[in-house]
Structures are given as structure tokens and as C-alpha cells.
Amino acid sequence: MKKINVIGGGLAGAEAAWQAANMGVRVELYEMRPLKQTPAHRTGLFAEIVCSNSLKSDEKGTAPHLLKQELRLGGSLIMQAADANRVPAGAALAVDRQRFAEFITSKILSHPNIKVIREEVTKIPHDEITIIATGPLTSDALTEDIIRFTGSDQLYFYDAIAPIISADSIDMSVAFKAARYGKGGDDYINCPMNKEQYERFYYELINAKSVPLKRFEETRWFEACLPIEEIARRGIDTLRFGPMKPKGLIDPKTGREPYAVVQLRAENLMADAYGMVGFQNHLRYPEQQRVFRLIPGLENAEFLQYGQIHRNTYINSPKILFETLQTRKKTNIFFAGQITGVEGYLESVGTGWLAGINAARLALGKEPIKAPKTSAIGALCRYVSSVETDNFQPVNITFGLLEPLPEEIRRNYRQKRERHLKQIEIALTDWEKLLDEIRPAAIANF
């Protein structure tokens, strides 16, 4: 049986290993955890989620939903786990992170074509078919070898994690349950603020003490995941039009929208822990307690996890990768996941899906495939492999990345939502054609 290596047991690596194994290829999956942990992980489970437990919108007509549908149709292990372990989150798909990771770990360990090797890989195996899916927290030794291989300096940005609070420490006489605009039922706990409360919180937040970054490293925040204190420093109302916007939320005690609101989302099926939505930060732990307990309803909050920062590493993919996720330098070496410059859990999974399929095809003597340009996965792979920019930045899936509709079709769909629905229709049609091409090679759907 032909063999490939997958380095990294995160979301992308687990997906890549699963897809390749289902193609009839033997997979050796390397994961250094729990023998060697990263600054953000806590367990040795595969696909452990370390930031938000939300996989973003699952509302029809959105680009994130299109990505999810492509993965569902493609037999994604990660989507199986997400759908089986979802928790209430309005129009979003959020998961019980422990059960989600346990589901994936069980599936990986029981697959007859996957051998798990618990050790750190410090050098790229140049003479074997290998997928590097080590994520943004790649170990220092392997990062240095990747730099040597790619011939370019690493790029980086800082990412931040939001706090998690014990449910029984939230004062529900102040907070109220609701989802924005009533979508999804009462899936969020909402902590309302009046103007005076908001302004006090704002000034304490922007003056709170942060964890210092290393003096020799430049700070490059990713715009879609800015620490809340960095957002606040852009103006007193930025939070009210960002993570603390009250639109679509009616406080039942007043019958009106609050001046500002902090939303909390369930972290697990037991709903005994809630994450602070959009409250990723890099404040010192005592400062987080002091400032966040100024939020109405959180005066006695028990913090199960504090917000923190970690450095995320990614390669300069447009100079390094083909659209198939093979490297230009050696086509037997693939990259997948956040290290390629996609941002987001399922964006990482999408690249893992394609890398796993293509590595298996290469091992079986078949030509690697490109995902359709109309599809979400195809758009992401095209972006990371060919975007022309002097400042390559991570990207989430948006309709702006998809192949534009032909002008003759655009003329018939004047409303944006209608155009998006047509784009989705075309994307899924093209995606099914791709799956019809590769399905005969799949041996099973374990």
C-alpha cells in the first residue's frame, strides 16, 4: 500500500489524513502533543480548538455556509464532528469543543489506514509525499526548516483568545437570553450596558495593562481577530459598532435595545461554560478580572480560561504553492491549514481536504486536481497560491474571493442576495462534478 506523511494533528491535518486514508493510502500522522505542547493547546486530542468554539455562520446564502456544504458533500470528518456536537448559537455553527475533539480523535485512531506517531518532526522528509499541516503554532525547529526550504523569511501575526466564564457565576437577574434578531432562539446570554456603564468600561479597558510582546518582534494583528482593547483604541464607539453592538437585541426588562451589549456563547452541550464573544485580548490576568467584572451581570464572574495571545506563523504561499497545494520547489511536499495563509477553522479544513485528496492521488499515480474556481475551497486555494500583493495577509472565505458571475447572469440578478444565491448554486453544481471525478477512487466512508 502506498504511503504518505501528514505532519500535524490539528483541523487541517486530521482532515487531510482522513481523506487520504479513505482513498486507500496508508497515512502516518505525526502529532507532537501531548509529549510537547504548544503555548495554546491543553490536550493531546486531534483537532483541539483553542480559540472561539464558533465555526461561523451556517445560514443559507452566506459564504461560510457554502464552505460547510462543500465539506459536507465531500465527506469531511471535521464537519461530521461539528454537526454531531453542535451547541446552540443562533445562525452560527458552534461546537462542544471537548466532544468535538474526542469524536475526531476516536475516528482517526480507529481508521485502519492511519498510523498515529506521537513525536515532534523537526525536518521536512524531502523524499516522501508529505503534507505539512502544523498550523500557526508550528514548533521552532520545524519552523526553521520550513524557512530553509521555502527560502524566505516567515511571516507572522499575533492572534488572541477570548475568556471563558462559568455559567453559574453569571447574574441572570441582569443578563438576558436572546439571539440577534431572534435567529436561533435564546442561544446567547446578553449583558446589557447603559451609556454610563459603557463609558466607564471603555476607559478602564483602554488603560488596562497588557502582556508585553517580545521587544524584537513587530506586532501584526490580523484585522478579523483584533484584541478588544486594540479595537477600543480606534475610538470610543468602535466597540458599539463591533463586538458590543446592540442591534437586534431587545432587553426584556426595558423593551429597548441597550446602549451596548456583551454576548456570551455556550462552550459545550452542558452549557456550564460561556465564551465572551469578540473579547479576545492580551491583557494581564488580574486586569481581565478587574475590567471584565465591570460588565453588568459579570460582577462575580468566575474565569475558567483567561484571554491570551499567541504568535501565529504562516508562509508566503503565493511564492511557494501551486493551486493544488503542492510546493513549487518539490511537488511531493504539500502545505495545508492556517500555515498557508487561510484564516478560520473551516478554511483550514478546506485546504486539508484538498491536500489529503491530492497527496493520495499523487501516491496512486494520478494527477492532482484543482478545486473549481467557483467553489469556496477553490477560491481559497487560488487566493493563497496566486494573489498578487507585497503584503500577503490571511483571509477568511467571502463571496469576493469566488469567481465572479458572468456579466450576462449578473444582469438578471440585481439584488446582492440573489446574486449570492446564484453563485452558491453554480458553486455546488461544479463541486458535485469534481466529487463525481474523485469518488471512484475512494475505497470507503469510515
Task: Give a quick precis of the structure.
By secondary structure, this protein is of the alpha/beta class. The chain has helices spanning 11-22, 63-73, 77-84, 97-110, 140-150, 195-206, 228-232, 285-292, 317-320, 345-363, 376-386, 407-410, 416-438, and strands at 3-7, 26-30, 54-57, 86-87, 92-95, 114-117, 130-132, 155-161, 164-166, 176-178, 188-193, 260-266, 273-276, 303-305, 308-314, 333-335.
Explain the overall architecture:
By secondary structure, the chain is α/β, with parallel strands linked by helices. The chain folds into two domains: 3-154 and 315-441, FAD/NAD(P)-binding domain; 161-311, Elongation Factor Tu (Ef-tu), domain 3 (Beta Barrel). The protein is built from 13 helices and 16 strands. The strands form four sheets. Strands 10-11-12-13-9-14 form a six-stranded antiparallel sheet. Strands 6-2-1-7-16 form a five-stranded parallel sheet. A three-stranded antiparallel sheet has the order 3-5-4. The longest helix is centred in the C-terminal third of the chain and has 23 residues, at 416-438. The protein is globular. The model has no long low-confidence stretch (mean pLDDT 89).
